[in-house]
Write a structure and sequence with these properties.
heterodimer; A: 199 residues; mainly alpha; 76% helix; B: 203 residues; 8 helices
Chain lengths: 199, 203
Amino acid sequence: MPLSRAPSNRLFMLLALALIALPVHAHTEEGVVGGFISGFLHPIYGPDHVAAMVAVGLWGAFLRQPAIWMLPVIFPLVMALGGALGVLGLPIPLVEVGIAASAIVLGLMVLLAAKPPLWIAGLLVGIFAIFHGHAHGTELPEASNPLSYAIGFVLATGLMHLVGIAFGLLTSTPRGTLAVRGAGALISVSGVYFLAGAL
Amino acid sequence: MNRSRQLGVGLALLSYPVLAFAHSPYPGIRGFYVGALHPLTEPAHFLMVLAISLLLGSQVSEARFSCLKTLFFSTAVGLILAFAIAVLIPTAILILLLLAGLGLLLVLPRNLPDWAYRSLTGASGFLLAMESIPEPGPFLDVMITSFGSLIGIHYLIMYGSRGVTLLMKKWQTRASEIAVRVLGSWFTAIACLMLAFTLAGLI
């Protein structure tokens, strides 16, 4: 019998691994780490945010260079401006409607494989990013460390774009294109659901 | 003893918790470490170090060396002046503004003259130094901590920029250029939000 399969060895290894001491993070809503985790999870726990941000990545992949990186660059930059407005208490009307509309429109763009001029795509993404940023800015948990919260949610946003781009790279094959356009349809339909909830 | 058992024993011994004896017998060395590691403990400072390292990393060796010389002197001047004028200057806000600007520079196609790179590096070192005033205490301790800050800021940016250069050389692809631009947009986004938090009195 190979050594690694011997029950005593496996038990021994398991015990050794179980002994490794790791820090316990039971209270995640306070301090620098808590702020980071809150900020990181905030966009991820919001399906409306996830839908729109993944759609940005998908659309960028459809539009190819330079949109594939330009849209995920524009989104966080403008989102931060929206976030700043939210933090400073400056109101923007119909934020939730804007977020739902972003999922509908960006999903449709992916579904239709729309290829407008880059500046139009950038403008569209930028306008929607303001709504997402404003929502993040106004919903800052009081107990969180604001600095690490900001880092967390910008990072999560970027990673979701990355997920969208990675999935969007499937467009190099006909079946992949179909799957990506299907995802666009799904995002658009979910946007309608979010809109119904917002109204 | 067979290999997996050796590994198991090794892991078990490594994970055995013991008290750490990290206090050096050399007086003042703790202050030096505190100063040297200070840029890593403040999120805005850390991001500034990263941003300036990315910016300098794209420079050729000679230009980078000249920027690093400027960095050293500006950091030293900043540390000396910090005791006198730090309270007069809103350094935290200036750091965030500079970080936002550095992020945008990373995003946009840049063809800056050497003096612009030197000015940006100098401003970064100066502002980081102004924000690194040690706690009041005996003169020697304060000096050692300040010296630690000088070394910390300088070495972090020196090794950071060199690391970026090496990485860019290794992965000379469009993807690495894009990664720098995306990181730049994140820096600007984070700096804008931090500015908003500061102005809203949340920090």
